[in-house]
Amino acid sequence: MLKSGKSFLAVFALLLLVSCSQEATLEDIANESNLQVAPQLAQNLNERVVVANRGSSNISVVDAATNTVIGTYAMPDNGMPMYAVHIPQAKRVFVGDRTNNRVVAFNEDNFSVEGTVPCGNGVFHMWASPNGNQLWVNNDIDNTTTIINPVSMQVKGTAVTPANLVSMGGKPHDVFFDPSKKFAYVSVLGIAGANDYIVKYNTSRYEEVARVAVDQDPHISGTDQNGLLYVACQGGSVYVLRRSDLSIATIIPFSGAHGAGMSNSGQYFYATDLPDGRLGVINTSTNTVMGSPITTPFAIPHNIAINANDSKLFVTHSGATADKLSIYAINPNPTLMTSLTLGTNPFGLVYYNYK
To answer: Using CA atoms, how far apart are residues 201 and 188, in angstroms rounded to an integer?
Structure first.
């Protein structure tokens, strides 16, 4: 009886404190009482999804709150857009340009071009550090990765794809930054035989520190809620790797796994089944597929972006004549909301919000 009475007084005091403080939030209450409260966005934030239309040399800008296309912007010099990364510290959206071997920096608000930074030949996937001081851009013709300072717009250095992997046909493809900011992970695909690789680099000297063989055609995601990487392999599985040493924690069967997207909560990993036109979700607590993947409304579901409060998921559908973006409500399983028509061959995409 005494214990329950003390608990009541503690809760009452907490609620009184919250009611008297203008700065207290739902998140504060959740932290004190171990409740889970979904993230909320301020009403004055702008939400955007930027999609690189590889086949039409432009980017589409979508209002992620209203699910409407609000603008289309040409790449300078008829460039081929590949992937997009938003870096809030620079207030820019960087878009890889495969034709001109560079990245193009667009203003995050009005999408004016603020400059370009040279890269190697064959610009493909790219990813930024959480603190925004490095942008890693893979170049699959030169077999290098260009490291850029997104604020100063200067090249900081180059990471080289391991020579013995290149000799077996390997090329750098996808890239993901460790939440600690100390390491980056690059997938190397095209290796002769049954396996491709994940290579771990340090972000100070840009040198390899570890590698592991995985299934074919790997794409990488992860979360700061645990010490794991989730690697979608189109060969038919999702590898779960320990970031510390790239040892294999488990392998989850998932046919055609390609596009990789992690919820902001870190509780759910989403993957597209590119060849069979499906979308599925994995519970990261149990590392099991939740139910059955759903069929997407258009072929070749490719890349994934998720909004800030984990309520929407965006999927590009790629191909020579493709032009669609599908939008899902997630709770956590996906339910189709709508589809939008964009430019030709929608490829990489990024969600972000800003004031």
So the answer is: 13
pLDDT in tens, 57-85: 999 999 999 999 999 999 999 999 999 99
Residue in this structure with the two tokens 């956590």, named with its chain if needed? 332
Which tokens is 120 given? 């190697």
Residues 6+ apart with CB under 8 A from 124: 82, 83, 96, 98, 137, 138, 139, 140, 172, 173
Cα 232 to Cα 165: distance, rounded to the nearest angstrom: 20
How far is Cα 73 from Cα 95, in angstroms, rounded to an integer?
Answer: 12
What distance in Å separates the CA atoms of residue 235 and residue 249, rounded to the nearest whole number? 18
- Assess contact for 299 and 267: CB atoms under 8 A: no
Output phi, psi for 109, to 5 deg. -105, -55
Residue 350 to residues 193, 203, 204, 308, 315, Cα–Cα distance (Å): 33, 23, 26, 11, 10
